[in-house]
């Protein structure tokens, strides 16, 4: 009877705990979604940054024209005159996800625009990512650690920076896919279920569709498999978790047009194939060991190892031959930049020019993960107590993500889930020890109070028993046997407990220490719990501040605070609206590649280069034009059929991310293709200057003239608030370009190329005679290349 009551109370407790866990996870999802809405509350529902505008434009096309037209879409408004095949050059996961959500909402008669769905896609998937973190951490260290890790990830600033409302980029869904793929891998590893292995391959396929960072998965999991094999932890569960992923996952990845045969032809994937061969050799050895005698097994092992080494040698030779035939050894430029942090700065300046590809500083770690930096080491220690396949994977994930985040600040996003998992494990283990200690001391206190109460009761009973015996009633006499029986049972129970205590003292001290859990003093436990709660409160405050102030402002709309209040700078949308309403539909606009996506999406005009950066020569051509004198720049732009040139200038309002600050990268990229552009010509004693000490090459290049034209009229001095000094060349005129529009705060300036008939004065007769004389000559005349 008592046993059934205990089982009933235990099942009731587990059911209540499950309901409470679901409720907490729902709250975590609400927090993850809500904390990312500051950008909408403080500003408006608008797409952020640069790349999201391209994704938004592609999603619009998908929702309007359908999936088949999307796969075959040739976009002639980008990379003029080359164009771009969109369906074969984008990771379609984000677009297909948002398009499906929009279609589902409209099928349910929920009237949402495509832009609204795109704005809120990232906050929605941040809640999914938090739940996936719970599942992953639960498989590693239990549900308590999972709930803690999910709550931490829901608010971590590093993830918020790429998932606020309006941040419609690939990482919005890719981080969820990354964590969910890892969860299914660990789930398969713990259960050995082929069903979860198949789901793992499908999750990996979704990750491949969503982000180029899928190569991190297909290299991290083989590293963990190899680690398990080397440390003697091979099992059939490990084989089931890995083999289907390589076979089915690679086949599915090859179906994505942007990946295609790269899934089997690039060096990023070769490591997974090599581990695939190794695990089959190991599986064969274990199988033979189970069916042969020890003597025959030794002979068979020698044979298998000989054949295996020969096969591996052939495979390695083929891989080496394939790698050696490639100038980059089979690696992409971004992958080589991760393996060699100096590679991009030496050979691919277009990659090094991107701010998010720079190494992070130490303060950025404390900004993006805050107190997690101190909790992670404790989580690593907890993973080794005891060490399992799942916990070893978590440690390996953390170590590799720490390295990659140190190479490229953008990959702090990959570090965030690992840091949250480790911090969740550390906090869960710490709270477990502290609460257990508090419970032990409190229980001990109540037990002592209960043992003192019967003693006092016995004294009172003995005093009452001294009363005259004639007061006893007949009922008292009948109750004596029952009381005597209960006392006998109690004495027997006390004797048994005493024997157990004596036997425990006889046991060795080492065995006693192994079985007894860690118990801390009550005062220390209470203080530690209080300090951990305070630490969590400080973390929440920092995360809310980062979400509200640091990462909520969209780059398309800027704000600043001064003594006279808040100032809003909406110059970008003002400039793009002017282009849309005051230029022809087929006009071409030249600008640095940073603004290509926004120009195409918001102004609906054809651009020469954009943020895809797939053609370095085309970008170098624009960089050469910006670095050249006005006449040479006009000839380059005219040969590209450009009609308008857009530059971003922050010297008046103090906007630091303008084209003058990016200009040296234009020089380096242009000089990498066209050698007559030399960086040293734009530097004075190794310093980049635009004041009176600037070089003549710098003062006469197109970028300087388009940025500072009429700038002296603003204050009479031409003081640049970004560079913090007066410009060198203040009064000059443009001969080949004319200013057509400058925004309210001078942040965006648009110029139009002057036609040739207005450019050449008093020479029309001479040019006609020259044309007539050249027409009588043979057609072997060569024109001067304006790019040289």
UniProtKB/TrEMBL annotation:
<dbReference type="Pfam" id="PF02516">
    <property type="entry name" value="STT3"/>
</dbReference>
<keyword id="KW-0472">Membrane</keyword>
<feature type="transmembrane region" description="Helical">
    <location>
        <begin position="415"/>
        <end position="434"/>
    </location>
</feature>
<keyword id="KW-1133">Transmembrane helix</keyword>
<feature type="compositionally biased region" description="Low complexity">
    <location>
        <begin position="770"/>
        <end position="782"/>
    </location>
</feature>
<feature type="transmembrane region" description="Helical">
    <location>
        <begin position="518"/>
        <end position="541"/>
    </location>
</feature>
<feature type="transmembrane region" description="Helical">
    <location>
        <begin position="203"/>
        <end position="227"/>
    </location>
</feature>
<comment type="function">
    <text>Catalytic subunit of the oligosaccharyl transferase (OST) complex that catalyzes the initial transfer of a defined glycan (Glc(3)Man(9)GlcNAc(2) in eukaryotes) from the lipid carrier dolichol-pyrophosphate to an asparagine residue within an Asn-X-Ser/Thr consensus motif in nascent polypeptide chains, the first step in protein N-glycosylation. N-glycosylation occurs cotranslationally and the complex associates with the Sec61 complex at the channel-forming translocon complex that mediates protein translocation across the endoplasmic reticulum (ER).</text>
</comment>
<keyword id="KW-0479">Metal-binding</keyword>
<keyword id="KW-0328">Glycosyltransferase</keyword>
<feature type="transmembrane region" description="Helical">
    <location>
        <begin position="15"/>
        <end position="38"/>
    </location>
</feature>
<feature type="transmembrane region" description="Helical">
    <location>
        <begin position="112"/>
        <end position="136"/>
    </location>
</feature>
<feature type="transmembrane region" description="Helical">
    <location>
        <begin position="270"/>
        <end position="288"/>
    </location>
</feature>
<feature type="region of interest" description="Disordered">
    <location>
        <begin position="457"/>
        <end position="507"/>
    </location>
</feature>
<keyword id="KW-0256">Endoplasmic reticulum</keyword>
<dbReference type="GO" id="GO:0046872">
    <property type="term" value="F:metal ion binding"/>
</dbReference>
<keyword id="KW-0325">Glycoprotein</keyword>
<protein>
    <recommendedName>
        <fullName>dolichyl-diphosphooligosaccharide--protein glycotransferase</fullName>
        <ecNumber>2.4.99.18</ecNumber>
    </recommendedName>
</protein>
<keyword id="KW-0808">Transferase</keyword>
<feature type="transmembrane region" description="Helical">
    <location>
        <begin position="142"/>
        <end position="160"/>
    </location>
</feature>
<feature type="transmembrane region" description="Helical">
    <location>
        <begin position="392"/>
        <end position="409"/>
    </location>
</feature>
<dbReference type="GO" id="GO:0005789">
    <property type="term" value="C:endoplasmic reticulum membrane"/>
</dbReference>
<comment type="subunit">
    <text>Component of the oligosaccharyltransferase (OST) complex.</text>
</comment>
<dbReference type="InterPro" id="IPR003674">
    <property type="entry name" value="Oligo_trans_STT3"/>
</dbReference>
<keyword id="KW-0812">Transmembrane</keyword>
<feature type="transmembrane region" description="Helical">
    <location>
        <begin position="365"/>
        <end position="385"/>
    </location>
</feature>
<dbReference type="Pfam" id="PF21436">
    <property type="entry name" value="STT3-PglB_core"/>
</dbReference>
<feature type="transmembrane region" description="Helical">
    <location>
        <begin position="300"/>
        <end position="324"/>
    </location>
</feature>
<feature type="region of interest" description="Disordered">
    <location>
        <begin position="758"/>
        <end position="788"/>
    </location>
</feature>
<feature type="domain" description="STT3/PglB/AglB core">
    <location>
        <begin position="586"/>
        <end position="645"/>
    </location>
</feature>
<feature type="compositionally biased region" description="Basic residues">
    <location>
        <begin position="758"/>
        <end position="769"/>
    </location>
</feature>
<feature type="transmembrane region" description="Helical">
    <location>
        <begin position="172"/>
        <end position="197"/>
    </location>
</feature>
<feature type="domain" description="Oligosaccharyl transferase STT3 N-terminal">
    <location>
        <begin position="19"/>
        <end position="422"/>
    </location>
</feature>
<keyword id="KW-0460">Magnesium</keyword>
<feature type="transmembrane region" description="Helical">
    <location>
        <begin position="239"/>
        <end position="264"/>
    </location>
</feature>
<feature type="compositionally biased region" description="Basic and acidic residues">
    <location>
        <begin position="476"/>
        <end position="487"/>
    </location>
</feature>
<dbReference type="InterPro" id="IPR048999">
    <property type="entry name" value="STT3-PglB_core"/>
</dbReference>
<comment type="similarity">
    <text>Belongs to the STT3 family.</text>
</comment>
<dbReference type="GO" id="GO:0004579">
    <property type="term" value="F:dolichyl-diphosphooligosaccharide-protein glycotransferase activity"/>
</dbReference>
<keyword id="KW-0464">Manganese</keyword>
<feature type="compositionally biased region" description="Basic and acidic residues">
    <location>
        <begin position="496"/>
        <end position="505"/>
    </location>
</feature>
<dbReference type="InterPro" id="IPR048307">
    <property type="entry name" value="STT3_N"/>
</dbReference>
């Amino acid at each position: 009877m008592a046993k059934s009551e205990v089982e009933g109370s235990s099942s009731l407790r587990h059911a209540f705990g499950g309901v409470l866990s679901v409720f907490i996870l729902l709250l975590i999802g609400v927090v993850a979604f809500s904390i990312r809405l500051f950008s909408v509350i403080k500003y408006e529902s608008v797409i952020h940054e640069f790349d999201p505008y391209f994704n938004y434009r592609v999603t619009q096309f998908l929702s309007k024209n359908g999936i088949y037209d999307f796969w075959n879409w040739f976009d002639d408004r980008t990379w003029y005159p080359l164009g771009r095949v969109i369906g074969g050059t984008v990771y379609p996961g984000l677009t297909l996800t948002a398009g499906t959500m929009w279609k589902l909402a409209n099928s349910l008669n929920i009237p949402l625009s495509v832009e609204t769905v795109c704005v809120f896609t990232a906050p929605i998937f941040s809640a999914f990512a938090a739940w996936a973190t719970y599942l992953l951490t639960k498989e590693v260290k239990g549900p308590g650690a999972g709930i803690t890790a999910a709550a931490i990830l829901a608010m971590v600033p590093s993830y918020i920076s790429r998932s606020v409302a309006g941040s419609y980029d690939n990482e919005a869904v890719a981080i969820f896919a990354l964590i969910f793929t890892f969860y299914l891998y660990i789930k398969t590893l713990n259960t050995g279920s082929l069903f979860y292995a198949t789901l793992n391959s499908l999750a990996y396929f979704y990750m491949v569709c969503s982000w180029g960072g899928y190569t991190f998965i297909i290299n991290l999991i083989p590293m963990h498999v190899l680690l398990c094999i080397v440390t003697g932890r091979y099992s059939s569960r490990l084989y089931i978790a890995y083999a289907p992923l390589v076979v089915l996952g690679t086949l599915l990845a090859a179906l994505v047009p942007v990946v295609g045969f790269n899934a089997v032809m690039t060096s990023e994937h070769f490591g997974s194939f090599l581990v695939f061969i190794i695990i089959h050799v190991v599986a064969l050895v274990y199988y033979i060991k189970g069916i042969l005698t020890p003597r025959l097994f030794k002979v068979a092992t020698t044979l298998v190892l000989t054949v295996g080494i020969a096969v591996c040698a052939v495979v390695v030779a083929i891989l080496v031959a394939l790698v050696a035939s490639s100038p980059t050894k089979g690696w992409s430029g971004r992958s080589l930049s991760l393996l060699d942090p100096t590679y991009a700065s030496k050979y691919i300046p277009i990659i090094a020019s991107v701010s998010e590809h720079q190494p992070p500083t130490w303060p950025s770690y404390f900004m993006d993960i805050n107190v997690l930096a101190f909790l992670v080491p404790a989580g690593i220690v907890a993973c080794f107590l005891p060490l399992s396949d799942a916990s070893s994977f978590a440690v390996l994930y953390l170590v590799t993500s720490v390295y990659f985040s140190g190479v490229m600040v953008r990959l702090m996003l990959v570090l965030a889930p690992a840091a949250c998992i480790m911090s969740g494990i550390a906090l869960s283990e710490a709270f477990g020890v502290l609460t257990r200690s508090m419970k032990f001391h409190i229980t001990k206190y109540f037990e002592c109070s209960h043992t003192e109460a019967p003693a006092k009761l016995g004294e009172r009973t003995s005093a009452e028993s001294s009363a005259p015996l004639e007061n006893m009633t007949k009922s008292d006499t009948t109750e004596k046997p029952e009381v005597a029986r209960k006392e006998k049972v109690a004495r027997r129970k006390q004797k048994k407990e005493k024997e157990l205590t004596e036997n425990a003292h006889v046991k060795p001290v080492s065995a006693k220490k192994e079985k007894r859990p860690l118990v801390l003093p009550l005062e220390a436990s209470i203080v530690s719990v209080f300090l951990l709660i305070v630490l969590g409160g400080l973390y929440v405050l920092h995360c809310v501040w980062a979400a509200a102030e640091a990462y909520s402002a969209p780059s398309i709309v800027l704000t600043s605070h001064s003594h006279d209040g808040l100032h809003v700078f909406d110059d970008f949308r003002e400039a793009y609206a002017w282009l849309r309403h005051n230029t022809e539909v087929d006009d071409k606009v030249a600008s640095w590649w940073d603004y290509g996506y926004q120009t195409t999406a918001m102004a609906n005009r054809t651009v020469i280069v954009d943020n895809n950066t797939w053609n370095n020569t085309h970008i170098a051509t624009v960089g050469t034009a910006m670095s050249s004198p006005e006449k040479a720049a006009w000839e380059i732009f005219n040969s590209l059929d450009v009609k308008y040139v857009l530059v971003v200038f922050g010297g008046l309002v103090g906007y630091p991310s303008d084209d003058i600050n990016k200009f040296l990268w234009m020089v380096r990229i242009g000089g990498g293709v066209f050698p007559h552009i030399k960086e040293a010509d734009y530097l004075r004693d190794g310093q980049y200057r635009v004041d009176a000490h600037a070089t003549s090459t710098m003062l006469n290049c197109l970028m300087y003239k388009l940025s500072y034209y009429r700038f002296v009229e603003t204050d009479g001095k031409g003081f640049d608030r970004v560079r913090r000094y007066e410009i060198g060349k203040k009064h000059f005129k443009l001969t080949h370009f004319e200013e057509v529009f400058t925004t309210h705060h001078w942040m965006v300036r648009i110029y139009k190329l002057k036609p040739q008939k207005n450019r050449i004065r008093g020479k029309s007769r001479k040019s006609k005679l020259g044309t007539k004389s050249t027409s009588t000559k043979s057609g072997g005349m060569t024109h001067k290349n304006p790019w040289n």
